[in-house]
Amino acid sequence: MSGPQWQENEIDREQAEIIRPVLKRYRQYWPLSPRQVYYQVVKEGGVGLWMDEFAGFARTIRAGLIEGRFPLTSLMEDRDELREGGAWEDTEEFVHSEVESFLWGYRRDLMQGQDRHIEVWVRKPELLDLVGDVAVEYCVTAVCCRRLPTVRFMHELRTRLGERHERSEPAVILFFGDYSPERPGFLSRVQETLRTDGNLWEMEFRHEALTAEDVVKYELPESVLTRSRKSHGGAEPTSVPVELEALPPDVLADRVRSAIEAHVDTELVNNQRAIQSREALRLGKLRTNIMRRVRSVLRELMPRDVS
Question: No. of H helices and E strands in the chain?
């Protein structure tokens, strides 16, 4: 017996045609969350800014993924937790796996020599990958902080700060969250919790986005979570909540990059990158020489092809 089939309708097909250009435009930022795509389509007049329309839009996205109209890697759904068994068929498979990964993945700490610890915090877990992809270019940690810090959160933060915290050296937290004129105090409550419960005082918080200026400059639509057909009609753009997902992905990436570079010595970072490039060349030559000898030994001891 075949399973249930998704019944495509004309609205699905029309919205799919609107969604495709958005996915193509922001290909380098995949996977995008449904809300990121939705807000871009809203700005282009493709759908209305209502919760029931977003629900239908989300169904169209799901249908598109099921039917193959959109690549599975292009859109983000709720993450399923996975813990693989992690085993090898035998010792030969294990040895060959270890050999092939030998001396791969070296990255130099580009933040060496900086006079402060820097992290990028984002309130939306759906945007952590995008923000993290930019932060990792500088070896800066990206963190999702969607609620007041837990004890574990504060312990892990103190561990990351390490000796800098003991020496009372400053740490800068670059925060990216929603624009909420009615409830603007989340970041201050986070800071107060870190001070009173975590004894973490030497920290400078910078609210990088969203700001009222962002809402106006990029003509960002109101949050679909608070929009209703009976409220906020004709309201001033800066008087209503706006989600961070409404900011175009490329703009958000540039904002994260600019925020980091405003708080680091970029000359030091570039010097470290130059050193890393030279080190990578030396490691490549070392790996080639060692692998040649290792493969020769393995051919004698293990019959599996290692060429």
Answer: 11, 4
